Amino acid sequence: MRIIGAGLAGSEAAWQCARRGVAVELFEMRPVRATPAHQTDNFAELVCSNSLKSDSENTAPWLLKEEMRRAGSRLLDIARETAVPAGHALAVDRAEFSRKVTEAISREPLITIRREEVTQVEAGELTIIATGPLTSVALSQEIVRLSSLPESAGKADADPSRARAPAPHNNLYFYDSISPIVEADSIDMSKVYLAARYDKGSADYINCPMSKDEYDRFYDALLAAQSVEQKDWEKLNYFESCLPIEEIARRGRDTLRFGPMKPVGLKDPRTGRIPYAAVQLRQENLRADSYNLVGFQNHLKFGEQARVLSLIPGLESARFLRYGQIHRNTYINSPTLLSSTLQMKAHPNVLFAGQICGVEGYVESIATGLIAGMNAAVLATGGEPAPPPRATAFGSLVHYITQADPRNFQPANITFDLLPALDRKVRDRKERHRLQCELALQEFEAWLRLSSFQPTLPTPSAV
Q1: Contacts of 386 (CB under 8 A, 6+ apart)
Q2: Residue 122 contacts residue 347 (beta carbons within 8 Å)
């Protein structure tokens, strides 16, 4: 079988197939063809933040990761191996994480790596498309063509010229962002302090506190800064949960103080007070020689970023290893196209995984890659895949991307809002979430016990 794309979802899918004895051709177009955001040709390169979200027990991201752990996620294991201090979150050294994923996938004998761009998909051949948000133009056009073909036209001998024109809503996309990174030794540590919000976990974040005057000065400079020119073909359709800071600021003077610059729970130990606003910096790698500005993705010119961000206390002389950027993310209209097993409704031998199928976030991408890999392995051995139970994080995520309103479909992270309500009312939110997690894990374990999902090869720890 073929897997197109060796990002988070594709790498996990390839691993899940291989550990079930299914041989895989894994296609990755880098370095033959570059993308606007990737900097290396390694697999599973993280191009935005380095955080895999909360590790606090009984949170929605924790539940999804716990289900992944129980299902044998290789990439989650590697994330743990390459973790850097990040309070109650799981964050990784992105370079080491990507290197280790590439190494693990490359040495798997059942995975053959092809460094080439795929521009055609045969609907009759078992295939997982996991090309992520930066799918090439040629493959994007092929996906639209495949999406517009009736089932009978998806066979190898079909005449592509007979395909009806794709509907406009098949070309869905949004814009995602990359946060700036600064060198650690260029931060003025006399003006900042270490703390985790509400003292959850260890004090791993560098916090840059701002007075009202400092905040106002920064806010005014941000609004006056020049953005990168919009190209003629662009339509800025930002993902609401990942807005550039200047877009947030335009919604009102205090919006940043209730968003990425929220000071709540960040008491300054030197003054005993909570600052008017705060910018958090998160460790970028194991060497702790660089930090990213949490939530500070933006669409400003690089020179403008240097000028505006230097108004943040502690970053007056900061050296930037990477400036913030915006890039176009492509995704399909999954509620129209996919079934609850991530197979195309019209072409069941073609599955989708990762951000291209309408999930948002690293963990969610890995999880859908895991599901698609398991299901593809079942199909390859003549079985019938079963969708994950609705009450699980896996099932709720898949339910959203396949059952949401196709007219207003936007990518989603895992949240408790996606999980079904309990059959009884529980007023206490923490207790309600604990019970939802408990039920989810019970149903998840039962689903995993289905014989068709069991791996046939030993896990890495047993090799």
Answers
A1: 341, 447, 450, 452
A2: no
For tokens 């009736």, name the residue. Answer: 150
Strand-pairing partners, residue 352, are 129
Cα 288 from Cα 220, distance rounded (Å): 32
Task: Give the C-alpha separation, 463 to 461, whole Å.
Answer: 6
For 240-270, write each residue's pLDDT tens digit.
667 889 999 999 999 999 999 999 999 999 9
In whole angstroms, give the CA distance from residue 280 to residue 261. Answer: 8
pLDDT digit string, tens, across residues 412-431: 889 998 999 899 889 898 99
Q: Which whole number is the average pLDDT over 108-127? A: 94
Please confirm whether the linkage preceding 31 is cis (ω < 30° from 0).
yes
Q: Which helix (H) or strand (E) holds 128?
A: strand 127-129
Residue 201 pLDDT more than 80?
no
The answer to whether the beta carbons of residues 16 and 374 sit under 8 Å apart is yes
Higher confidence at residue 190 or residue 134?
A: 190
Q: How confident is the model at residue 36 (pLDDT cuts 50, 70, 90)?
A: low
Burial of 350 (0-12, 13-18, 19+ CB in 10 A): buried
In this structure, the strands spanning 83-84 and 89-92 are: antiparallel
Q: Record the tokens describing residue 463, joined without a space.
A: 């090799």
Residue 171 pLDDT grade (very low, low, confident, very high; cuts 50, 70, 90): very low
Mean pLDDT for 281-289 is 87
Q: Which of 289, 255, 373 is nearest to 9 (CA)?
A: 373
**Rounded distance between C-alpha atoms, residue 435 and residue 441, angstroms:** 10
How many residues in the chain? 463
127 with 3: CB under 8 angstroms? yes
For residue 34, give both structure tokens: 């570059």
